[in-house]
Structure formats: C-alpha cells, structure tokens
Amino acid sequence: MFGTRLPRYRTRSGMFDDMVVAQIRRLNGAWPELVAPVQFAVEDVPPSDPAPWEAVPHFGSQCFPADHGMPSRIVLYRMPLQSHARSRMDLQFAIRDEVVSRLAELYGRRPEEIDPDWGM
C-alpha cells in the first residue's frame, strides 16, 4: 500500500540505523582520522553476559579496541536506547552521546574534546 520511499514504510530499526549513520557522518566530517578506522555495528540487544574486563556492563553500546588484525569496533544496542528515549530527538541525542563516548574511550580522550555538545 505504501511505496518504499514514503516515511511510513521505514521500520523503527531502519530509522535507528539512519540516525546512527547520520551521527557517524557528522563526526567523520570533523574527525576523519578518528572515525574512519573504526567499524560500527548495530545489534538489537547486548549480550546476556558482560565482557570479562567490564566491571559495569554498558547496555547502550560497547567498544572493542583493535586486536590481532581486527579494527576497532563500536556496537550500539538499539532496544535499550529506544526504550529509554521519550521522543525521536531524545533518541538522536542518546545515539550521539553513545557514539561520542565510545570514540573517546577508544582513543583515550574526553568526550567533550570530540563533541562539545556531548551530554547536553
């Protein structure tokens, strides 16, 4: 009934993916040397058991440093982020904050250095 290009056709997961891509592109414009070598992924939920090195598990996202020929990776978890957001704008800010904080964690920087609007 609806064409594939109409807004109603987009699923919640598809819109989430689009928001993640928009944040990655925005940050890549400002920090290509930080963003380009990192692989980004979206999964529905975090793994049921946290990584052994994590004292407190992160339910919104997780980062994995480069290791044995594998590039650095940042994984965002869609359902926890969507469940805490009250609006589309809240979700966009949550995605921005997760991506920025994980990039900062990977590179040993403060999130405010990467994005001055982080956490606002």
Automatic annotation (TrEMBL):
InterPro entries: Zincin_1, Zincin_1_sf. Gene3D superfamilies: 3.30.2010.20. CDD domains: MMP_TTHA0227_like_1 (cd12954). It holds the Pfam family Zincin_1. This is Peptidase. It comes from Bifidobacterium moukalabense DSM 27321.
